[in-house]
Amino acid sequence: MILKSERLNNVSYDLRGPVYEKAKELEQQGHYITKLNIGNPAPFGFDAPPAMVQYIIDNMHLAQGYSDHKGLLSSREAVKRYYEKKGIANIHVDDIFLGNGLSELIMQSVQTLLNDGDEMLVPSPDYPLWTAAVRFAGGKAVHYLCDEESEWFPDVADIRSKINSRTKAIVIINPNNPTGAVYSKELLQEIVQLAEEHNLVIFSDEIYDKILYDEVEFTSTATLSDKVVFVTLSGLSKNYLAAGYRAGWIMVSGAKHKATSYLEGLNLLASLRVCSNVPAQFALQVALEGPTTVDSMVLPTGRLGQQRTICYEKLSAIPGISCVKPKGAFYLFPKIDVKKFNIQSDQQFVLDFLEAHQVLLVHGSGFNWKQPDHFRVVYLPGAEELSQTMDKLALFLSTYQQGSKQQKPLEMAL
Question: 91, 132, 254, 384: which is deepest, by most CB within 10 A?
C-alpha cells in the first residue's frame, strides 16, 4: 500500500467531495446535474469583460516565457493603484504577489506563517479552503462563531475568548462565502482592535468586494490601521467572472516593519513556484482599471440582483426553511428544520436531494458549521432555471423524512 501523507488526514474540501463524486457518477449515467455546489459563473452564461479577454489575446505572444516570480510589474502596479483608491496607505509594489487564483495564494500565505501547532482563528461557517490550508500547514484552525441572528456577523466576544499564546492570525472573509454577509466598518474595527492588542496578522479575503447589493458599503480591512500586518487577498474569479483564468493576488500592508521575515517567506514560495500563469496576468490591469460588468448585474433589475431575490423568496416560502438575505457574493446559507425533516446528517440530506432531483448542493458541515442544519445554494443559474430548481427543493421537502424511502427515484425525477 502506498499511503497518502499524514498531513492530509484532516484536510477536506467538500465542495468537490463525496457528494460531488456521486454527481459525476449520475452524469456518466446520462443525467443532467444542476451544479449549485461551486461559484463558477461561466457555465451559467456569465462572460468576462470583452476588453480583458481581448487584451490577453493581443499579448499572448508576450506570455511565452516566465514572468518575474512575483508577477508582471505592470499588473502589480495596477493592484497597487486599486488599493490606493480604497484608501490603503504605504503600499509597495514588491509587497504584492500574483498567483494562480486565490486558492493557491491562500495555501502559500498560510504556509509562510504557521509552524506546527500554531493556531489561526477562522470563521464558522468558512470557505473551507482556509481551514484546509491551516491544517495542511501543520496548524490548528480554531473556528469563531458567525451569528445567524446578527446577519451572520462574527461574534467578537467569541473571537476574543479563543485568542491564546499560540494564536498567530485572524481570517476575515468579507463579503462572506458562504453566508453573503457584508461586514460593517464598526465590526471590522473591533476585530482589528483585537489584532492590535494581541499582535495578530489579519488575512482579509475580499474576492467578492464588488458583488454588493442594496447599496451596502464595503470597507477593505487594511484601511483601518497601520499597527497591524494585513494580508489582503483577491482575484478575477468572481468580480470579473473569470474563474478559469486563475488570476489572483495577495498584498501585504500595514505594519510591514513587523513582517520582514514573513515577506521573505512569501518571496521564497513564489520563487519556488517559478511564476503564475502569465497570460492571465495580462488581464489584471485591464480588469482593475476598466469598466466592471458586474456593477449593473447587482442592481435590483440586474441579473444577479433578480436571481438573489428569486432564490431568497423561494427558499423562505418553503416550510421548514429560513434564510438571511445576503448583502454580497452569490450564495445563500439557509437553515433547515432538522426536527421537521428528521435530519441527522446534512450530507445525507444533500445526497438524497441530488439523487431525487439531480441538483448538487453543499451541506453546511462542508463549511465547518458544526450542526447538520444548513446548506449552501449558489444562485448563478438564470432566473427560470433557478426558480424551477427551488421548486424541486420545495417538492422534495414536502414529503422528506431522512432515513425513509419516500424520495423520488431518478427515473421519475427526469
Answer: 254
